[in-house]
Amino acid sequence: MDQLTFEGCGGLELYCRRWRSETKPTAVLSIVHGHGEHSGRYENVVDWFVPRGYTVYAFDLRGHGHSQGTRGALDDFVEFREDVRAFLGLVREAEQVPIFLAGHSLGGLIALNYVLHDGAGLAGVVASGPVLSPPGLSPFLLWLSKVLDRVWPSLILESGLDTSALSRDAAVVEAYVNDPLVHSKGSVRMANEMLRAVEWTQAHAAELALPCLIVHGGEDRLCDPQASKRFYDKVTAADKEYIEYEGYFHEVYNDLGKEKVFADVQAWLERHLPANKEANLAG
User: Which residue in 60, 83, 149, 220 is the catalytic one?
Assistant: First the structure.
């Protein structure tokens, strides 16, 4: 594994991991992780895809992992988009093969929001368990967050994440709880920026032109699979696919039966490699 850094929005130094295929890669999978976690939690993805000829890049979001920034703080969702733009610039400079953008949970929202603004140069987007609806908070707390956004936007709160909802694999949950790089913090402003991004992304789903795959656990209690399905149904482009895994929890890449998910994602990626895509169209 290579450790890299690059400059994100506003000059913030962001940390990136790279796992390279031993042979010339078929494609690059560029990963955006979820809220509170970090790029090092994607070893399962690496272990599946790198031996199969893919190079994997993953960076730590601002305020996460080894990247700079206050834990859980965000001023504007555009910061996430511009960080992804800089991340993909780093990837493009080093790699001369097709690039897929993949995001999980909050990273899934960021990835979909990014490609709706600018999908140029990407072969496709994959979102797993994306945040596409408001979190399961009471109406009072949602109202309070909007009030505090006007008077105390920098206030950092604990998210109260139900870690048991991450995976049916107890070892995954235990590792998450004991991971020193994981946090459960979020600012009032970040919460509201996320809600605004969810609303905008859902409202503009019909404009998605890039090939898109959404995978979601059917028993995901953290991000509603029905919200993913609503987004998918509004996408008018023909090149889209939605797969829901019955019984799976939020982290489909870390759940029991993850091999099925990886095989499905790999099959979708390979169908969307330029050479294979042209052959399919010709056939």
Answer: 220
